[in-house]
Design a protein that fits this description.
This protein has 559 residues and is an alpha/beta fold. Helices cover 29% and strands 24% of the residues. The chain contains 17 helices and 26 strands. The strands form 5 sheets. It has an 8-stranded parallel beta sheet with strand order 10-17-18-19-20-21-22-23. Helix 6 packs across helix 7, helix 8 runs parallel beside helix 9 and helix 10 runs parallel beside helix 11.
């Protein structure tokens, strides 16, 4: 029987949702009803409720009052846990998460010495691997206070090439064996958009930045489709244990998209995926043929991912002025001549553009390019009225360019955990004056923008609790912060919730079916054992996922 929902009445100061049939019915027929809970809806007109019911994967009723359910409706007692709209990671590299689980993971190691020991242990445990490959090191909290170098890794691995990517994915440490295989010496010129770092004596340091990484990465053992599928499956499985109900994949391949669709057909897709294809032939295919959309919203592919600069930590982010701690303004990875044809075609085909921009110069240039594209294609030729183009990361933005985001309708897609990690080195990179414009979440909200919140995993851990905490605390996970880090730029918990629910849904053209708990939307919920909207801020990190529900199905349940 088809249902229709009416909003009526006031109960305890909140609106109640009442469900009726086309003809008046005495009870609500549903597949599942949640009980013994508090529900945060992310709907300002109806912010909290206590009861909801689900049919065919969608919400049919949500109310502050007990629902009159038909006999036989299954009840899920969540034992006082707290229900939120399904958390969405608006910027993630899904396959990278899986490979992080499969390969040498160097995250959360607190010294160079311990990092090298982890590499040594891994190399010894895997003697048959032709390369030692890992990812995740980051020097920001190391007592050594420096990048690792070729000598460090040569002392550990000298019998085979080693390739150890920094956590941000924009620089890599390689050993002498890898440099020799790639034919790199101190006279080798870096490619455009890349850097080959040297020490004070002019010798190779072993660090390659951005486009220079390809000089070695092209030599890595080729991954098979089976490897890729395993990595994707691992990434999906990990995500639901953390409470993610959707991830927005920031640049992948058509091959990976095909694997995800095969998993979907087999009923093995754990959460929804919004997909952007990486720049190159695969993105060109989407630009030619238009979006690939599913009516059930399990996999939608309608974006292309472009890189404009590198990362702040490796000094590859493009800045308007020199770095505070180095005589460089970073790297630009694309120019107007190359990007403009893509932008114009994207407008005509209804493709969402998602451009990586971290430095203030990169953000300004991307805004310039977007504006020129909008002006050069008549609006009657746009496939969609509001293209909802995004800038990914949007980390350093001058006040005048923040206003341009609003004027042009550009969505900042930002990852709060970057700010609580970068606070250990960003002051050195930017200097005190530019910190006002760094990770300016509240400034953007104040001018009427929304923020699509993500994690950038595997660059960061990829945990919704950390991201929510970072947004509202603006402190690292140990509670560290300094006054120069502008605590006033943290956001309210209400807005933090929207950053990971309603606003990513809007950023994916899906706010009519996802992002809030309302009758008629899909039944996607993240259920924590505590109220992250009210507990002391440090307790947010202690929350445990009780259930991850996607389309009315329990994809994860804690033991």
């Amino acid at each position: 029987m088809k249902l229709r929902c009416l909003i009526t009445g006031l109960t305890a100061g909140l609106l109640s949702t009442i469900v009726f049939a086309e003809k008046e019915q005495a009870c609500i027929q549903a597949d599942l009803a949640l009980s013994n809970t508090t529900i945060y809806t992310a709907n300002d007109k109806f912010p909290k409720a206590q009861h909801l019911a689900i049919t065919d994967g969608s919400i049919v009723a949500v109310s502050t009052e007990r629902l009159k359910l038909c006999k036989g409706v299954k009840q899920l007692d969540v034992r006082g846990a707290f229900v939120y709209p399904g958390f969405t990671d608006a910027h993630v590299h899904l396959k990278g998460i899986g490979y992080r689980e499969k390969q040498l993971n160097l995250q959360d190691i607190n010294s160079l010495a311990e990092t090298m020991q982890a590499v040594a242990d891994y190399a010894q445990a895997n003697p048959k691997q032709k390369w030692v490959v890992g990812r995740g090191w980051i020097e920001k909290v190391w007592p050594e206070k420096r990048f690792p170098n070729r000598q460090d890794i040569d002392a550990i691995v000298n019998d085979r090439p080693a390739f150890l990517m920094r956590a941000d994915g924009h620089s890599v440490l390689v050993n002498s064996k890898a440099l020799a295989l790639a034919g790199i010496d101190k006279n080798t010129e870096a490619p455009d958009g890349g850097a080959i770092l040297k020490d004070i004596k002019g010798e190779l340091s072993g660090i390659l930045v951005d486009n220079a990484m390809a000089l070695v990465s092209k030599l890595l053992p080729e991954k098979t489709l089976s490897d890729d599928k395993d990595a994707l499956v691992r990434g999906l499985a990990r995500n639901v244990t953390l409470g993610w109900t959707q991830t927005q994949n920031a640049g992948g391949s058509l091959s990976d998209l095909k694997i995800l669709r095969e998993l979907q057909s087999a009923g093995a897709l754990n959460h929804r995926v919004y997909y952007a294809l990486g720049q190159g032939p695969d993105a060109n295919s989407l630009l030619k043929n238009g979006p690939q959309l599913d009516e059930d919203y399990w996999i939608n592919a309608r974006g292309i991912k472009i890189y404009s600069d590198g990362a702040l930590g490796s000094r590859g982010a493009a800045l308007l002025e020199n770095y505070h701690d180095a005589k460089t303004q970073g790297l630009l990875l694309i120019d107007e001549a190359r990007i403009m044809p893509l932008l114009k075609q994207a407008l005509r085909k209804g493709i969402q553009v998602q451009t990586h921009a971290i430095g203030d110069k990169a953000n300004r240039l991307v805004l310039d390019w977007y504006e020129k594209a909008f002006a050069s294609v008549p609006k009657n030729l746009w496939a969609v009225e509001h293209p909802r183009w995004r800038i990914e990361h949007s980390q350093n933005i001058t006040p005048e360019d923040q206003i341009r985001f609003k004027q042009l309708g550009i969505i900042p897609s930002m990852q709060p955990s970057h700010a609580i990690g970068d606070l250990h080195f960003a002051p050195d990179r930017l200097g005190k004056a530019r910190l006002q414009n760094a990770y300016p979440w509240q400034s953007l909200l104040d001018i009427g923008l929304i923020i699509a919140g993500g994690s950038d995993a595997p660059v960061e851990i990829g945990d919704p609790r950390i991201e929510f905490y970072a947004a509202v605390a603006r402190m690292d996970t140990k509670g560290y912060q300094t006054p120069q880090w502008h605590p006033e730029l943290a956001v309210s918990r209400q807005n933090a919730l929207k950053m990971f629910t309603l606003w990513p849904a809007y950023a994916a053209f899906e706010e009519h079916v996802l992002g809030s708990i309302e009758a008629g939307k899909f039944a996607d919920f993240t259920i924590f054992d505590r109220d992250i909207m009210t507990v002391p801020v440090e307790e947010i990190l202690q929350a445990k996922v009780r259930y991850t529900i996607v389309g009315g199905k329990i994809m994860y349940q804690s033991k």
